[in-house]
Amino acid sequence: MNATIEELLNNQIKYEATASMQYLAMASWADAKGYNGVADFFYSQSEEERVHMTKLVKFVNERSGNVEIPELEKPKATYKGLNELFEKFLESEMFVTEQINHVIYKCLELKDYNVHNFMQWYVTEQLEEEAMARTLLDKLNIIGSDKSGHYLFDRDINAIAAAHDSK
Ligand code: OFO
């Protein structure tokens, strides 16, 4: 495996792992605050990112590359409220999209069409996740600081997410 691509895929393993731990911290914050719907949403997002990470680990190993399981920074654990929580979610997804685009760019530059092909799954997945994060943040921006709005958001978030997924 090309050394640059191997390094980029290892970086990507770290970004997916970071997102998984970040969303776990967000789920835990929401759980403790009594936002059960939001907590469920982030517990499941955390699992999804773990799957993204593991898929990369397996792929690099299958191609006889070297996987380095990374050390992670402690995720942000406290939030002023739901708005800040979902701003962080969107920011995290946008960062991951940028990194995936960079891997794709490098694959083309280095003519690694195998990895390019493998990464298409991530491109599609990211497009959906970023759009979902944006939809949810838009809704929260409409609600503003209204407490009953937050109550309804928490009650309906998993239905909103499911409707988004089935589009
Ligand atoms: Fe949403 O980060 Fe994985 O790909």
Q: Sum up the overall morphology in one term.
A: elongated
User: What is the second-level CATH architecture?
Assistant: Up-down Bundle
Q: Main β-sheet: number of strands, strand sense, barrel status?
A: none
Q: Could you tell me the CATH topology label.
A: Ferritin
How widely separated are the two ends?
A: 37 Å
Number of domains: 1
Low-confidence stretches: none
Radius of gyration from the CA trace?
17 Å
Tally of helical segments: 5
What class, by secondary structure content? mainly alpha
The CATH homology group name: Ferritin, core subunit, four-helix bundle
List keywords for this structure.
81% helix, elongated, 0% strand, mainly alpha, binds hydroxy diiron-OXO moiety, 167 residues, Ferritin
